[in-house]
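Appendix B, Record 12. Input sequence as logged:
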Amino acid sequence: MNTEIVELNEQNIDIEQLMRAARIIVNLGTVVLPTETVYGLGANALSSIAVNKIFLAKGRPADNPLIVHVCSVKMMEDLLDEPIDLRSKKLIDAFWPGPLTLVFKRSDKVPLEVCAHLDTVAIRMPDHPIALKLIELANVPIAAPSANISGKPSPTMAQHVIQDMDGRVDMIISADRSRIGVESTVLDISSPVAIILRPGGVTLEQLQEVLGKDGVMLDSMVNGVVDKPRSPGMKYTHYAPNATLQIVRGKRENIISYIKGEIQTSSTPNLIGVLCSDESKSEYQGAHVISIGSVHRLDQGAANLFAVLREFDQIGVDMIFAEAFAEDEMGLALMNRLKKAAGFNIVDV
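Logged structural output:
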């Protein structure tokens, strides 16, 4: 397949170019589009034929549901089996457009392939001018998982997408780096207490401000693997670099001591990577050391995580030791992605 690569400026969108992308969507093709979270691999969410092309391009298991992206509440309502309730309206008013995906009962308009044959559909409105305009021009909802080979780190830069998807999709829209850098929060609102199925760009604390502390909780399997996922990112090892990745968890001084010991006793320290914070970067010598940012700005750390994992792939290390980070605010999403990237390979020190 010949993939067309189109560069667009989100501050000054070339509508003619974007119309060509919209026609590809309407004609059941695939388009990689930028969003505020990560780049997405998009296709017409109302067509089984189009949606199956997503699974083929990614090598994604068919029992892993997709998120449907809309540009208006009206477009969302057409996909639902029931009217949205007051709680949903509060969440939409507070966080849309933005990195919050809501799980609703689906209507028959939504192909079973989108939902992994579940009776629910996951929907969000992206906070990105190119993505919103593309959906508007195509006039159909767009199903779009992250635009990477399944299991690999999600793409936050156009060059990541081109590495993974060139030759696999009809068009790649190249734009700026993703602002948030981790996928959306997925929230199941089918029960009296809303349940976070996947932490992401909207934090637990932010949701509690809208729903109350007792109005939202983490799913018990957020940090595990389930057999029948209700949300993307629940069943399989995701976001994994080529190297073995081990998370080192404990007091800061113990983490540093452990990783330094592993470097010093290794016969090939030049093949070791260390994923750490700004505050500890200078502690490590002899290995490839990359900081994701300050421990005081884990939102920035989350935004940098996937790019750092891909950088280790480019360097060619075969072992990565990652410092563990606090699991609150955006640290919850950061550690969720890091644990899945490591296949839950964690050592406590």
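The chain is about 30% helix and 20% strand.
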